[in-house]
Design brief:
Number of helices: 13
Helix content: 25-40%
Distance between the termini: 73 Å
Number of strands: 20
Shape: globular
Strand content: 15-25%
Radius of gyration: 27 Å
C-alpha cells in the first residue's frame, strides 16, 4: 500500500502501525528516536518507506513540554543576494547538524516588512531567530520568549548576540592598497549611509585617505551605479581609482568601466568577492568577507541561547581580507599596465577552502607543520619552518589558459601574507626563473620564453617587440602560478 492508496490523504502514524503490524506506541517511540527491537525497527522503517510517511512536526510541537519546533527563522535583506545566500548556507550547516530546519525570508531593507516577517516566524513557534537588521530600531524584535542573534549588522535599541565583519578595517585595506600604488584621487561608491555596513566602510575609507580628496557617491544600487561611475570620471580632476562598497555595486562597477572602455585605466577594488573576479580582464582586487563563517558563528551563538545560555550578550568580529589577484597598479612609465597576482587558484575558491577546512573535493585538510622551504602553489613565498601548510585537491572552476591550476597543491593553511607595498616584484622571485607567455588579441598563446628572474624585463620587452602580442604573463617556475601580467 503506497501513499496514493490512502485516498489522497496524508499517511498517519496509525497507517504505519497497521502496515507494520505493531502498536501505535511502538511507532511513536521509533519516530521520536527511541531504541527498539531490530526486527520491529526494520518493519516500521519498511512501512514508512512504502507509505511515504512524514512526521507532523507541528503536531509534535504542541504535545512537547518544551514546545521546541526543531526550526529556526532567519530574516536577511535579500536571499537572492549571493552574500546573504552564503550567510544562510553557514547558518543552515549549523542548524542541520542539530536537527533543525532553517526558514528564511527577505526584508528587502524594509523595517515594516522585517517586523511582519519576525512576528510571523515567532507565531510558528520557531526555536530561535537570526536577523540582519533593516531599520534604525530593532526594539520590536524583543519577544522575551524566542532567543535572538544578529548577523552582518548590530541591532539598535536592543541588546543581543552579534556577529559582524570588520567593515571599517576592510575599507582601510582597500584604500591603502590604492594609495600605496600612487593613487591620490580615489572614488567611493556606496549604498544608503543609514545601513551600518556602508557607514562603517565609508568611515574606513575616510580614515585611510587622510588629507587626500574624497569622491563619494551614496544611495546607489546595481541599476544606477553606472551613472555614478560616469559622473565621477567626467569630473575635470577625476578619480584614478574606485572602491565599490558592496558586492552588487562591485558587479555594476565592473560593467560600467567596461562599457566606458576604462577597465584598464581606472584601478578598482570591490567589496565582497564576486564570481570569476579573477577570470576577468583585468581581474578584480576585492576585500573578501567570510559570509559562510558569519552565518556559522551567528547560528552557534543562537543555539547556545536555545540550549540554555543566559549570560550577557556577545559580539564577534570576523576579519576581512584583501585579495589582490590583479587590478590596482598604476600604469608604468612605458605605457604598459602591470597587474599582480597572488592566487592562481581563484580567490573565492581559496577563501572557501580555508574557511571550511575542506578542499574543493570535500575532503578535510591534510595539514602538517612545514620544515621550511616548500614551494606553495598560490603564495608569494615558500613555507617557513613550523608553519602549517595544507595539501588540498583542487579542480579549476571558470579558469583557463594562463590562469588554470589543478591539484593536488600545497597552500598555507591560513591566509597568505601580502605582497610588496610598492606593487613591485616580490623579492623572493628576483633570482627565480620565469616562463613568459605572450598572448594575442584573441587570447591565444603566441610565444613563450624561459628567462632568469633578472632578465624578466628584457624578456617582456622582447615579446612586446611583436605588435601582435598584447599581454605577457609571467609564471614563476618554482611556484607554478602566474604572478603578474603586463598589457599594452
Amino acid at each position: 500500500m503506497g501513499a496514493a492508496g490512502l485516498d489522497g490523504r496524508r499517511p498517519t502514524m496509525k497507517d504505519v502501525a497497521t502496515l507494520a503490524n505493531v502498536s501505535l506506541s511502538t511507532v511513536s517511540r521509533f519516530v521520536n528516536g527511541e531504541p527498539g527491537r531490530p526486527e520491529l525497527v526494520a518493519r516500521i522503517q519498511q512501512a514508512i518507506d512504502l507509505l511515504g510517511y512524514q512526521r507532523d512536526l507541528t503536531a509534535s510541537t504542541l504535545r512537547r513540554s518544551d514546545r521546541a519546533s526543531a526550526s529556526i527563522g532567519v530574516v536577511v535583506a535579500d536571499v537572492g543576494n549571493p552574500f546573504f545566500a552564503a550567510v544562510l548556507r553557514g547558518i543552515e550547516e549549523v542548524a542541520r547538524a542539530r536537527g533543525s530546519l532553517t526558514v528564511a525570508a527577505s526584508s528587502d531593507e524594509d523595517p515594516a516588512r522585517e517586523r511582519e516577517l519576525a512576528a510571523a516566524l515567532v507565531a510558528r513557534r520557531i526555536d530561535g531567530l537570526i536577523v540582519v537588521p533593516a531599520g534604525d530600531d530593532s526594539a520590536h524584535l524583543r519577544t522575551g520568549r524566542v532567543p535572538l542573534s544578529f548577523v552582518d549588522r548590530p541591532p539598535r535599541y536592543l541588546d543581543g548576540d552579534t556577529v559582524l565583519s570588520d567593515n571599517a578595517g576592510g575599507a582601510v585595506l582597500a584604500t591603502r592598497h590604492l594609495i600605496e600604488r600612487g593613487h591620490t584621487r580615489i572614488g567611493f561608491l556606496g549604498v544608503q549611509e543609514r545601513i551600518y555596513t556602508c557607514a562603517e566602510r565609508l568611515r574606513g575609507y575616510r580614515s585611510a585617505l587622510g588629507a587626500l580628496p574624497a569622491f563619494v557617491r551614496l544611495g546607489l544600487d546595481q541599476g544606477v551605479v553606472a551613472s555614478a561611475v560616469a559622473d565621477l570620471l567626467a569630473l575635470p580632476e577625476s578619480p584614478t581609482a574606485l572602491i565599490a562598497s558592496q558586492n552588487l555595486l562591485t558587479i555594476g562597477t565592473i560593467h560600467a568601466l567596461r562599457r566606458l572602455g576604462q577597465q584598464h585605466r581606472i584601478a578598482f577594488v570591490g567589496f565582497d568577492d564576486v564570481p570569476l573576479a579573477d577570470a576577468l580582464d583585468p581581474s578584480v582586487t576585492v576585500v573578501a568577507q567570510q559570509p559562510v563563517l558569519l552565518g556559522r558563528r551567528a547560528a552557534e551563538l543562537l543555539f547556545e541561547r536555545i540550549e540554555g545560555y543566559g549570560g550577557p550578550s556577545r559580539s564577534i568580529t570576523v576579519d576581512t581580507v584583501l585579495i589582490p589577484p590583479a587590478s590596482g597598479c598604476a600604469p608604468t612609465d612605458d605605457g604598459y599596465m602591470t597587474t599582480f597576482f597572488i592566487n592562481a587558484i581563484p580567490a573565492a575558491e581559496l577563501a572557501r577552502v580555508r574557511g571550511a577546512g575542506q578542499d574543493t573535493e570535500g575532503n578535510p585538510f591534510r595539514s602538517r607543520d612545514s620544515e621550511g622551504g616548500e614551494p606553495l602553489r598560490c603564495c608569494l613565498r615558500p613555507a617557513r619552518a613550523g608553519e602549517r601548510i595544507a595539501l588540498i585537491a583542487y579542480r579549476p572552476t571558470g579558469t583557463a589558459g594562463a590562469y588554470a591550476e589543478s591539484g593536488p597543491v600545497f597552500v598555507h593553511a591560513e591566509q597568505c601574507t601580502g605582497y610588496p607595498s610598492d606593487g613591485g616584484w616580490p623579492p623572493e622571485f628576483r633570482d627565480r626563473q620565469q616562463v613568459l607567455r605572450a598572448y594575442d588579441a584573441a587570447g591565444r598563446i603566441a610565444d613563450a620564453i624561459l628567462v632568469e628572474g633578472a632578465e624578466a624585463e628584457a624578456g617582456i620587452a622582447k615579446l612586446f617587440a611583436d605588435p601582435a602580442h598584447v599581454v605577457v604573463h609571467s609564471r614563476n617556475v618554482l611556484y607554478g602560478c602566474y604572478m603578474f601580467a603586463v598589457s599594452r
